[in-house]
Amino acid sequence: MSRDAYALTGMPWTHRFSFQRALGELLGKRWMEAVVPVALLIGVGLYFGLTTIGFYTTSNARTMSQVVAELGLVALGMTVVLVGGGIDLSVGAIVAVVNSMALMMFKLWEWPVGLVVIGAIGLGAAMGAVNGVLIAYLKTRPFITTLVMLLAYRTVAEFIDQGYSTDLALALRLDESWTFIGNGSVAGVPTPLVILVLVAGAVHLLLSRSRWGWRVTAVGSSRTSARRAGMNLASITCSTYVFSGAMAGLSGLLIASRLEGTSSRTALGLEFSVLTAVVLGGVSLTGGRGTAMRALIGTLVVSVISQGLTMQAKDRFLFQVVLAVILLVFAAVDLKWGKNRGKAIQKIYLAPGLQRPEKSPDIYARDSVWTVNDLLTGAQAIGTDRLDGPEDVVVDAAGVMYCGDRRGYVWRIPGPEAEPEILARVGGHPLGLALDAENNILICVAGMGLYKVGQDGRVAGVSTEVPRTWYRINDDSAIRLADDLDIAPDGVVYFSDASTRFDGDEYFLDLVEARPNGRLLSWDPKTGRTTVELRNYAFPNGVCVSHDGQSVLINSSLLYRIDRYWIAGPKKGRLEPFVTNLPGIPDNINRASDGTYWVAFAGMRTPAWDLASLMPDFRRRMVKEVPVDEWLLPNLNTSCVIKVTEEGEVLESLWDREQRDHAVITSMREFEGHLYLGGLTNNRLGRIEIAQVEGRQGASRSAEVDA
Amino acid sequence: MRINGSTVRLAAAVAVGALALGACTSGASPSQSGNGDIEGAGGLPKTATPADVVKLTTEALAGKVVRASMLTDSAALTQNWSARLELGLEAVGIDFESVASNYDQQLQAQQIQTFIDQGVDALVLHNQDVSSLASLITKAQDAGIYVVVLNLGSNAQSDAFVGPNWEEMAKVLAERVVADCQAKGKDEVAIISGFGSDSGSVSSTEGATKVFEAANFNIVASQPGQYDPSKAGEIARTILQQNPNLCAFQGNWDGMMLGVSKVVSDQGLSGQVGVYTTDDSQPACDAIGEGSMTAAVDYGAGTNMGDTAAAVIKYLLQSGIPAGTARTAIFMPNTIVDQSNYTDARLCYGPIH
Questions:
Q1: What's phi and psi for A8, nearest 5 deg?
Q2: Do A621 and A627 touch, CB atoms closer than 8 A?
Q3: How confident is the model at residue A588 (pLDDT cuts 50, 70, 90)?
Q4: Which residue in A58, A315, A483, B87 has the fewest CB atoms around it within 10 Å?
């Protein structure tokens, strides 16, 4: 069970909740795209439930399930075609032909039922293949082609009806497995519904998980891109029509088994009901967007209206009118929704919170520990212009430096005078580093999680997710902004996830929001499990295991403080303040050789931002109304390094007054009398000599703590 | 589930036996709805005052629910049925609604299944295919719902079929065709049926064919016109082109055959090529008056059939006979309508207003 660090913000508990934030997170959910169709379904469901006696009864559900299944199967086929960027108007005619032909196979030719099933679906697929070949290989237009095939297949249906309807009507053949298809049930559920659910599940998997489904989506989204990606457009397009035909065939088979009647009017106008259904479900007519679930939702809407009006014994024309009106209103609402949802999220996702920082210590006071000096000026530059944004640096026992790079590289620098070489490419933005007992480099990679790079350059994920918090709207299982880490004597890795709401390169948005969105995680190599140690921690940044190995020090960049979290000993599990009300934004923290700690300030506090912290409404307006590059932001480019004792007393500060070479310092490591400097936006590492403390080896080897 | 005929008959036999036994052993116990002599048979007591008759009948019928599913609500024929049923049933307090399926079998099946789910007391069906609704008719009867089938019959036998004896009617009409053609010295005829799979088409084609074959006539075509005047007109046009010596068209339903008579008169063949049909709505009688149509058969479709159906329903609902056990067919009488009698007020029905 994790500890809640919310109290550190000093805000009342009511401040935990934000309507705007909840709304922003809700809107961001993928399933919110379907909110209008679902609302529509609930709406019509409620309406008929309230106005029609017996609407919610098992018998009515059974009756409806037959309609739903026969319509739904065709809708699933249509969805696949639409996702692939086409349209199939011939489905109703295919249903009619297959209906008659299946009856002929069964009644006149007396085929075994299994063969009739294969024959019916195969016939549907073959009729779909005609569409597919014409459209995919002969490059005819889908709309016109399938419209022509609709007429052609209708003629076939009529021809069969003219020639065989009397024979079919008079022929009698009883077969239980035939009746089972359309009228039977499996464990009380009507067979057609069972078939629909199975097929819908299959279509869902095909569209969302299979190579074929992804290709269909790709072709429907952008034919040009799909072709450039090397896809065979013709065969993919053709296959969608074959699939749609097969679904129409299956539907025709169900109708044949259930009604045993031929009529050239079977499924007359079905194509429009099906199109209405899928459009109401939110399947895009322009291709690339649609799921099996949405096809089913739309089918349900149409079926509920059809059944509700049937139960009310209303004239059939009313059904068409109601459907037309709903389609019109829906299309308008859904368009607005789809267009504006993204905009709305952009405007409201960032929900600034109130923060009450104490008055900052005056760094201009005479002879204070904060007095600006030149102690870091003239630091040796390492890897200038080859490195880009090494946030952290770590030095191994042999004096070899390792650092990350915002392009996703991990660099190895054999010595102060040596040229940097790329050890590995991890991706993301590697931030904090630590060396484990085997000299592997453990890295917090923003946007990815905790990774390990071996000396052979091999990259392995260590910890990329934690169990999801059930009550949070946002999925917080991913580690979005892994920032810094350290390794405890028992091998457990403690690392910070600075924000559960913003990704790596948007870290400054979390600062603008100023809410405790971060957490401290631990990864246990013995179990391989990742645990949330502290939640609701305000922008946890640097992490460092104390010299005695009993606690972890955490920098809160947002609250300008450092906290001590006990991981062993009598106080285990307690969270205590270490240093509070710092004048800068603490970034990384590391052990010094003399039993104290080095802390880097990524920037200094400013009166303007301290004031802005008190004014969430001001920041909200700023976020909404001003372009990002004109926002007022915390200062992140005036840096220094400070030294803090085990008791939390600040001993001194080291500055580069001119800031010529190391504009921002986000990290420092002490090794053999030198301080190595890293900077999030610098193009180099820095190295500068400091007074060496007798008898200490330095603290860059993180696992070496005085246990 | 599908119940075949022998199962139904067996069930009926068992039910009747049980009823008979019940009558012997517990004659004093009240029957389900009435005072008849047979247990469960309902009806009125042997003697009753007129006031009692009204009271008992009203009690038996008021609040019963009857639903009808017609193939269409845009034909004068079905409009008349619905209107006469509504008049006859609502007069005694029965809740009646009629819906149309627009010739959509799936929709009609959905409507009937819904009415079965709702547990109505009786169903009226106008059925476009002898087999497609058969299982639903049986299902309704199993659920205790009386089923009255209008005009077009089904393989599954309803409690009552109300409509023409199609084969007989087609024979009467065909005999008229034969007589007229023989008088003209021609022997080529064409048959245009309805859907082809409805009982009207099946039986009337059979009846007409028998008569024509007996007279050694040449049937040049026998095709379904889908009860659609324009489709039937197209078929007639083709047949006329291929058979210049054609003597007559015989077909099902005047609504469709008006399309044929229009083609015949457009080609200036009225009088030379006869158009014979069943049923006689006002437009058909007008065509007879003009001479573009030769003769029609009145079977009371638009006049008495709805009333007859209403009467049968009221009878079934009072009778106490278990649903599915009566299984009767009530045929309507035929009258040939031609120029000699088309103004007779008892023939030719208009649309509902």
A1: -60, -25
A2: no
A3: very high
A4: A58
Interface of A to B at Cβ within 8 Å reads 53-54, 57, 59-60, 62-63, 66-67, 70, 161-162, 165-166, 168-170, 172, 174, 179, 183, 255, 258-268, 306-307, 310-311, 313-316
pLDDT at B23: 38
Q: What is the pLDDT of residue B28?
A: 35
For residue A456, report the phi and psi dihedrals to the nearest 5 degrees: -85, 5
Q: Which chain B residue is nearest to residue A59, measuring alpha carbons?
A: B117
Q: Which of B174, B129, B173 is nearest to B155 (CA)?
A: B129
Interaxial angle between packed helices A113-132 and A233-259, expressed in degrees from 0 to 180 and rounded to the nearest 10: 140
Residue in the structure block whose two tokens are 């606690």: A551
Determine the pLDDT at residue A1.
63
CA–CA gap between residue A534 and residue A554 (Å, rounded): 11
B270 secondary structure, DSSP code: B
- pLDDT tens-digit profile of A96-115? 999 999 999 999 999 999 99
Per residue, what are the HEC states of A411-460?
A: EEECCCCCCCEEEEECCCEEEEEEECCCCCEEEEEECCEEEEECCCCCEE
What is the 3-class SS of B279-290, one letter each residue? CCEHHHHHHHHH
User: Residue A572: what pLDDT?
Assistant: 94
Do you know the residue count of chain B?
353
- How far off is chain B from A346, nearest CA to CA, in Å? 47
Whether the per-residue pLDDT at A467 is higher than 70: the answer is: yes
Name the stretches of chain B with pLDDT < 70: 1-42, 353
Structure tokens at A140: 């005819």
Residue A55: closest C-alpha in chain B:
B118
> Is A686:A470 a contact under the CB 8 Å cutoff?
no
- The ipTM assigned to this model is 0.79
Tell me if chain A has a CB within 8 Å of the CB of B73: yes
